[in-house]
Specification:
This is Neural EGFL like 1. The chain is mainly beta and 68 residues long. Helix content is 0%, strand content 50%. The chain has one domain.
């Protein structure tokens, strides 16, 4: 993916599976235990990428909404 081009990346999480798609191709699938869904209000979620060749990390921080 470190080719200077934009790519479509999708990560989906269900009650039993984690799936990763890149450019509409499934590249990873794993059966998982049920995810923890009891996150406290105001929790942070980081989405990012790392370039192994240069060790760079780019990310965006998302603030999860207050429950209600």
């Amino acid at each position: 993916m470190a080719d200077g081009q934009w790519h479509k990346v999708a990560l989906s999480l269900s009650a039993s599976h984690l799936l990763l798609h890149v450019d509409c191709n499934r590249i990873y699938e794993r059966v998982i235990d049920p995810p923890e869904t009891n996150l406290p209000p105001g929790s942070n979620l980081w989405l990012g990428q790392r370039n192994q060749k240069h060790g760079l990390f780019k990310a965006n921080q998302l603030k999860l909404g207050e429950g209600g």
